Amino acid sequence: AQSVTQPDIHITVSEGASLELRCNYSYGATPYLFWYVQSPGQGLQLLLKYFSGDTLVQGIKGFEAEFKRSQSSFNLRKPSVHWSDAAEYFCAAFEGNAGNMLTFGGGTRLMVKP
Amino acid sequence: NAGVTQTPKFQVLKTGQSMTLQCAQDMNHEYMSWYRQDPGMGLRLIHYSVGAGITDQGEVPNGYNVSRSTTEDFPLRLLSAAPSQTSVYFCASSSGGAAYNEQFFGPGTRLTVL
């Protein structure tokens, strides 16, 4: 079955440190891939997306993600984390299902230490 | 331009009660959808609509009804609430299918069923 897995439920990093959030997908072909962020009490906001082409994609708020076909991964990275990045992050995928909707991973909650 | 709005923000129900979660968007989007968010499970699609008068089931439709009489509104009805429906519910809209069009999310409704 198609699925998106985020292995880390919680991650804590110090402010200013680098960040990498993991995402793995299980699809027959390469799906379209997305990262969303959910700040406390808010809805989800799109950070970035990958359709094809350059495997390193840039997003908003200084985030980037790298698509690696050989590892079925789409990890999210940021060189220097700010306290305002504390939030929950969701990886999502689309592979042309009938509903034309996304399949989400379970989410990773990021905490930032001062 | 309010984007996607949801009411109420919070709701407590007793088992067996019915209620309607409201969702409205003012972006003239054709696609609208309802997700539920449960810890560790990400967002799961309940129902979606690709235009006024057209609805279909998502991954977890049981216990929920929807209708789409206008482009703007997409209410979600709980027919007979059960504790398993305790969750956070998000409404989303987009101008087209999720692959190529950013989904805009409302702030969510937190529902508790006792």
Key features?
heterodimer, A: 114 residues, mainly beta, six-stranded mixed β-sheet, four-stranded antiparallel β-sheet, 0% helix, 51% strand, globular, B: 114 residues, seven-stranded mixed β-sheet
Structure in words:
Chain A has no helices and 12 strands. Chain A is mainly β. Chain A starts with a strand and ends with a strand. In chain A, strands 2, 5, 6, 10, 11 and 12 form a 6-stranded mixed β-sheet that branches. In chain A, strands 3-9-8-7 form a 4-stranded antiparallel β-sheet, with no helix packed on it. Chain A has a two-stranded antiparallel ribbon with strand order 1-4. Chain B is mostly beta strands. Chain B has no helices and 11 strands. In chain B, the strands form 2 sheets. In chain B, strands 2, 4, 5, 6, 9, 10 and 11 form a 7-stranded mixed β-sheet that branches. The model of chain B has no long low-confidence stretch (mean pLDDT 93). Chains A and B meet through strand 6 and strand 10 of A and strand 4, strand 5 and strand 10 of B.
- Which series of helices and strands of chain B comes N to C? EEEEEEEEEEE
- Main sheet: strands, sense, barrel of chain A: 6 strands, mixed
Globular, elongated, flat, extended or rod-shaped: what is the shape of chain B?
globular
Largest sheet of chain B: 7 strands, mixed
- Helical content of chain A (DSSP H or I, runs of 4+): under 10%
Helix content of chain B: under 10%
Give the radius of gyration of chain A.
Answer: 14 Å
User: Which chains share the greatest interface?
Assistant: A-B, 24 and 28 residues
What count of helical segments of chain B does DSSP give?
Answer: 0
In sequence order, what are the helices and strands of chain A, one letter per element? EEEEEEEEEEEE
> What share of the residues of chain A does DSSP label as strand, in percent?
over 45%
Beta strands of chain B, count: 11
Q: What is the CA–CA distance across the termini of chain A?
A: 41 Å
- The best one-word shape of chain A is globular
